[in-house]
Amino acid sequence: MIVIVDYGMGNLGSVVNAFMKLKVPVLATSDVNEISRAERIVLPGVGFFAKGMENLRALGLIDTLNKKALEEKVPFLGICLGMQLLTSFSEEGNAEGLGWINAKTVRFNFSDGAGLRIPHVGWNKIAKKEDPLLLSGIAEDNRFYFTHSYHVAPKDENILAFSFYGYDFASVIQSGNIFGVQFHPETSHKDGLLLLKNFAEIGSYVAN
Predict the structure, then answer these.
(1) Is 184 a catalytic residue?
(2) Which residues is 104 bridged to in the sheet?
(3) Domain spans of the chain, in order of start
(4) Catalytic annotation, pick one of 91, 186, 189, 201
(5) Which CATH number, 2.30.42.10, 3.30.450.280, 3.40.50.880, 3.40.640.10, labels domain 2-201?
(6) Does the annotation count 186 as an active-site position?
């Protein structure tokens, strides 16, 4: 069973529907007991970083998520804000994150005259640094849907793919069993569904 963490910050319906299209058993919940039984976990998210962490703490979910991701090493996927929450710190609200990825979340910072709007909204390509299981079958000229003002700045060894918006930024990351995507696979049509299918088929532990 894939559990989607309901902490009041994500478009849960779209994520649930995406997995249902794939005929993958899925449950959206904030119940600690249900999360503790999960074989895979998805942390979606849209909104303010500090509020996301506040909600996870208020619901008493952090200890359980730590155990599942760091001790049991179940496959874990953070989507958009959910990816950013995997980092140690965000400039958005000057807040500490889960700290599972050696990275910070930073605001887009363009030179004067770049003419680029923040947030970055729309379709964009990914450039794969390697060909991991999560991105199996996905071509680099395929596009995914983004909407974000901040992005993750990780160590190079954690980056699976980049995207370009004014400059290269990490759009797919991994540390062992923990994955993050800055875009929204649940609204990225067939390629987004393929990524979620790949995640659903990843084994219980994926080495770096």
Answers:
(1) yes
(2) 89, 153
(3) 2-201
(4) 186
(5) 3.40.50.880
(6) yes
Query: DSSP string covering 99-117, please?
Result: --SSEEEEE--PPTT----
Among candidate residues 80, 92, 148, 151, the one labeled active-site is 80
Name the pTM for this structure.
0.95
Q: What is the pLDDT along the chain (208 residues), one digit of tens a residue?
A: 999 999 999 789 999 999 999 999 999 999 999 999 999 999 999 999 999 999 999 999 999 999 999 999 999 999 999 999 999 999 999 999 999 999 999 999 987 656 899 999 999 999 998 788 999 999 888 899 999 999 999 988 899 999 999 999 999 999 999 999 999 999 999 999 999 999 999 975 544 4
Q: In the chain, which residue ranges form alpha helices assigned H by DSSP?
A: 12-21, 32-36, 49-58, 62-66, 81-84, 189-201
